[in-house]
């Protein structure tokens, strides 16, 4: 069965006809052509499909698209503003916190959720926030450094 859902996606109001049983990750990739959200384990274990739902990091492989009705969804495509990378995106590049890049969108989305809740996280809080995101290429040290550095940049921007 299909139904029309209305929700905010990356700041834009959308109205789409969706299958009742399509997951959010498949809806985003197939119907919205937003391939930044990765399809990994499909069991909520790897974090590659992490999006923000009303500001909270969620595994979009465990969520049905119809659950987005009336809510706000942000994907990695919605993080960059006016052609300018978000400090998290820039720091992931500058600190060499990515290698193959498969986990990077999910890592950034989890980190965004953390920094919205806690703009001054300690290292263990950063590690806790990304614990649901699996990276097969790095040792996580550079990822933690990038998130910490972005937090400091965001703090300076807020105080400027």
Automatic annotation (TrEMBL):
GO function term, MF aspect, one: 2 iron, 2 sulfur cluster binding
Keywords: 2Fe-2S, Iron, Iron-sulfur, Metal-binding, Oxidoreductase
Keyword Transmembrane helix attached: no
InterPro entries tied to this protein: 2Fe-2S-bd, 2Fe-2S-bd_dom_sf, 2Fe-2S_ferredoxin-like_sf, 2Fe-2S_ferredoxin-type, 2Fe2S_fd_BS, Beta-grasp_dom_sf, Diverse_Oxidoreductases
Any Pfam family hit: Fer2_2
Top-rank taxon, per record: Bacteria
2Fe-2S ferredoxin-type domain segment(s): 3-79
Keyword Iron-sulfur: yes
Protein name, per record: (2Fe-2S)-binding protein
Organism: Cloacibacillus evryensis
